[in-house]
Amino acid sequence: MKPEDLLKLVTTEMPFGKHQGTLIADLPGNYLGWFAREGFPKGQIGQLLALMYELDHNDLRALLQPLRGGGR
After folding, report:
1. Average pLDDT, stretch 51-62?
2. Helix boundaries (H) for 1-72
3. Domain of life here (predicted)?
């Protein structure tokens, strides 16, 4: 993981599937868990999903708050 990957979590939208258009950082934990069980996609999206899963699983989503624009 690179520090800039955390910023990508709050700026990159899910490009496909049930939650298409949702920021990676806002994906529900059960959806991330499904990928963890079934396999993450290849490429950057898969890496970001895996990172977000780890943050969610370890209750560390709050680490992303300072990176969000507009104090969301």
Report:
1. 97
2. 3-9, 29-38, 43-57
3. Bacteria
